[in-house]
Write a structure and sequence with these properties.
Elements lengths: L1 E8 L8 E8 L4 E5 L6 H8 L7 E6 L2 E2 L5 H9 L1 E4 L11 H11 L7 H13 L15 H13 L5 E5 L7 H16 L3 E5 L3 H6 L4 E5 L2 E5 L6
Helix pairs in contact: 3-4, 3-5
The structure holds adenosine-5'-triphosphate and magnesium ion.
Length: 226
Amino acid sequence: MISLKAVSKSYSDPNRVLDHINLELKRGDFLYVLGGTGAGKSTLLRMLATEETPTQGILSLFGYPVSATSASTLQGIRRSLGYIPQDIRLIPDLSVYDNIALSVSLAGKRSMTAQSKATINSLLDRLGLSAKRDKPASVLSGGEAQRVAVARALARSPELIVADEPTGAQDQEFTWSLMDLFLRASLGGTTVVIATHDKEIIRRVPKPCAVLKGGRMLLEEAYCTY
Ligand SMILES: Nc1ncnc2c1ncn2[C@@H]1O[C@H](COP(=O)(O)OP(=O)(O)OP(=O)(O)O)[C@@H](O)[C@H]1O
Ligand SMILES: [Mg+2]
């Protein structure tokens, strides 16, 4: 499903942000990605979301090596992904609903079915966003925008969710609503990778974790004790 074999990543600086990372994830696996600020969490997640490619090593998603695959296969991989970037990236002039609907249609659902509309509305309801449904994304608070970004990813019914600090701007109540949605997705067979700093989440929802430090990755496969 996801495989990283000796994956390294460096930018202009010769120091490696990630240095020989190995990781295997199966369908339905749930993994926290931890580490201090600048440890490389977002870099790793951007690679999983195909926004960046490794400098060295092989990253495979759904069995395809991302750096050596055709444009059409890459498009297929992207349609199967739900990515929640750390910087959210909503389209400011589109309504909350249309931001999500656009993402669902880009995932390959040619026309919005009654079911996909119902899925979006139920996610908006679940995340306390029903009253904001027809408002432009530009008027949302930081926490609301972050929840829309989560709804945008989940509404695609992705095979892989890549969530970069998805609860960073939430209060307790919405943190657990979001975690509940991620856990349900994982139980339904979606692979879930979440970068977080939130120790309370890790304590209350014990799952495996990958801890990044100095470019290296320490994997805690049973559950996270970080
Ligand atoms: N596009 C880029 N060009 C150059 N350097 C980059 C780029 N993106 C990230 N870096 C560097 O790579 C390192 C890891 O950054 P990254 O954003 O992956 O960290 P992070 O663990 O997500 O941190 P945070 O917890 O603050 O979000 C940092 O030193 C950062 O400056
Ligand atoms: Mg980050």
